[in-house]
Amino acid sequence: MITVEHLSKRYGAHPAVDDVSFTCAPGTVTGFLGPNGAGKSTTMRMITGLTPPTGGTATVDGVPYQRLGNPGRRVGVLLDASAQHAGRTGREVLTLAAMTMGLDRRRVDESLERVGLNRTAAKRRVRAYSLGMRQRLGLAHAMLGDPGILILDEPANGLDPEGIFWMRGLLREFADRGGTVLLSSHLLREVEAVADRLVVIGAGKIVAQGDKAELLAASGIVVKALDMAALDLMLQRIGLTGARTTDGGVVVQSDAETIGRAAADAGLVLLELRPAGGGGLEQMFLTLTAGDSVQESVR
Amino acid sequence: MTTVETTTTRPAEGTAPGAAPHRTPKLPLSRLVLVELRKLADTRAGLWLLIVIGLAAVATTLILLFAAPDDEKTFENFFTFALLPSGVLLPVLGILSMTAEWTQRTALTTFALVPQRGRVVAAKLAAAVLISILAVVPAFAFGAAGNLAAGGPWSITWQLVVQCVVLQVVWVLMGSAFGALLLNTPLAIVLFFALPMVWTILGETIRGLRTAASWLDMNVTTIPLTESAGGLTSGQWGRFLVSAAVWVLLPLVLGTVRVLRREVA
């Protein structure tokens, strides 16, 4: 169980994370979505006690991370797969972690095997690893202490499609056995396939959160008309605003009947009128997080 | 490239994640010290530094054996000379131990596993002190081998041995302190060697600094530790401790505060 309450972090006048609250329950995978620089990593670093928050609290199983005693046995953390000493071998990285946590060294080999790093790979120095291999090593590191909670920042970066598919299976199975997963990504598609819940963050603020199914259902309908300008006027008249999709349609937060009747009254010819589905969520994700995010990602 | 195998090996069925005990006791400091000791030698940089120190200690023995006048071939000289390489190079290991966490960004995983950063710093210092004391053993052995070959006198006082150990420890701690304060490997190494040297040159050339230098120049205040076989006078200890407070204790305190406060990214 991860509980985040009113978590905030300011750097000078700049709010990197602004009043963020959410919980991750056992047995679920929570997708933490947002563009680069939206505050995902900062939030995760605050949960794991690496960055002191300016305000708010974060607890793991009801306890602040710093007071977990042997945190590696409770929470598996992968914040940056590249943050490993380039001169250590993969096996050495895990051996050090196993020693620190007081684990049987045999766990190291089991863990390497679980993530698909063979003996040759384990003996090589991390310098020679591809990003995908570093992610696998990072996952092995996170799961080494047999924790009940995983906190993973962009773990799919650098993995090939097969690797991403494998990782989804690993996380799904972990959650199905009662584990808690918090997984961040800047790509909706990547987490959509595995997450039960979504938390969407943009410019430091939470812009949407809830069950994936609910968020998908509430993502509006796509409308396309022969005369798009007339459609915009009609939408304005009934007090709705639409967000343009890439293929020339409009996503409206309404239901099909309302739009259909209004179009009939206005004598508009509709070409499309359908639930937006995942595409709508992506649209929402883009519109909600557009704007300041770009400027922050280069900060 | 077949280094990555995408097998779907799964752990034993039925084991719930977090089967680990719900209450996990704090990590014992002794274990953290062992981890930090291992980290000193498990990278190429660390391992080669240790190998070079060992080879250099052998070289000092050979130099003394073949190039020194006969009356200088004593066990005391062989021993103190063999300690020179570790005295100069072990501090670099102390620097690396502190800085690598930040330059290699391993602080992210180290502090995720041990959130009490003060304990990590304590473990690093303990590991550095242990290895500097251990370095006296091979120096003793090389010195004995050299003297055996030279057939020189064996007399050595316990005071001198203790002073040599103290000096080794102080140099390594000074390295660790510079590492913690600067958290940047090249900068820490350069300043560790250059600052005391500059200070020595200034102290020798500027008349007004001579008194200050006799209390604050480590290169001057540490000389009696390797030369006074009969033990240091209280005045010599006083000067040594004052200089060590400025060059070791002060940067160590400031560096520890910096490590405790710095945001890990």
Q: What is the CA-CA span between the terminal residues of chain A?
A: 32 Å
Low-pLDDT regions of chain A: 292-299
The helicity of chain B comes to: over 70%
SSE class of chain A: alpha/beta
Number of strands of chain B: 0
Oligomeric state as shown: heterodimer
Q: Overall mean pLDDT score of chain A? A: 89
Strands of the biggest beta sheet of chain A: in what spatial order? 5-6-7-3-8-9
Shape of chain B: globular
The DSSP helix count of chain B reads 13
Overall helicity of chain A: 25-40%
Compute the gyration radius of chain B: what is it? Answer: 22 Å
Derived from helix and strand composition plus strand pairing, the structural class of chain B reads mainly alpha
Helix-strand topology string of chain A: EEEHEEHHHHEHEHEEHEHEEHEHH
Spatial separation of the terminal alpha carbons of chain B: 32 Å
How would you sum up the major sheet of chain B?
none
Taken as a percent bin, the fraction of beta residues of chain A is 25-35%
